[in-house]
């Protein structure tokens, strides 16, 4: 519980550490969703993935940032929410394991499988793929800006002739 009621003092909030703040901001639980499917859809421009948790037998929704979060972050969010999760692996449709360093935008470009404690879930990303394609343009723009800034910072290495004149 993140807050407690103290007598005659109203509602006071306990101090939260960084892990609980991350947990609090990026996911919530619900018992109304189906416990045998994983669903992905767009909510306010961000992908929202709903995953059934094995220990508590309830669905949990995770709102992800495609350019900032990685597959490892999603794995950590799931493990933080349900301590009964021992192992989480991600596989593509052809059976190739997806590395934890891959970005969420790369993960959501095609359908994949999540295996949580020997329970396999198929994830259909067709409903969100049009939103993820937009982020690919941002990746290209981000890489271009990084190259321009690198050249601007180290221009004396690239253009030594002009520096001597």
Give the number of DSSP strands. Answer: 9
Strand proportion:
25-35%
Q: Write down the overall geometry.
A: elongated
- Structural class by helix and strand composition: alpha+beta
- The CA-CA distance between the termini, in Å, is 68 Å
Strand order of the largest sheet: 3-6-5-4
- Estimated radius of gyration: 21 Å
Mean pLDDT: 77
Describe the sheet with the most strands.
4 strands, antiparallel
Number of domains: 1
Oligomeric state of the chains in view = single chain
Total number of helical segments? 6
SSE layout:
Layout: E1 3-6, E2 10-13, H1 18-26, E3 27-30, E4 39-43, E5 46-53, E6 58-63, H2 71-81, E7 88-92, H3 104-107, E8 112-116, E9 119-123, H4 129-153, H5 155-158, H6 160-164
Protein name: Calcium uniporter protein
């Amino acid at each position: 519980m993140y807050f407690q009621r103290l007598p005659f003092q109203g509602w006071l909030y306990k101090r939260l550490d960084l892990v609980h703040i991350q947990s609090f901001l990026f996911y919530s639980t619900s018992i109304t969703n189906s416990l045998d499917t994983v669903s992905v859809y767009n909510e306010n421009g961000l992908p929202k993935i709903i995953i059934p948790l094995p220990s508590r037998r309830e669905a949990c929704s995770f709102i992800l940032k495609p350019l900032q979060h990685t597959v490892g972050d999603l794995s950590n969010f799931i493990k933080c929410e349900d301590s009964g999760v021992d192992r989480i692996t991600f596989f593509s449709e052809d059976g190739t394991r997806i590395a934890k360093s891959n970005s969420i935008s790369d993960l959501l470009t095609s359908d994949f499988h999540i295996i949580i404690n020997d329970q396999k879930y198929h994830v259909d990303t067709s409903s969100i793929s049009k939103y993820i394609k937009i982020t690919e343009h941002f990746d290209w723009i981000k890489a271009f800006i990084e190259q321009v800034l690198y050249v601007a910072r180290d221009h004396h290495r690239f253009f030594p002739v002009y520096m001597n004149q």
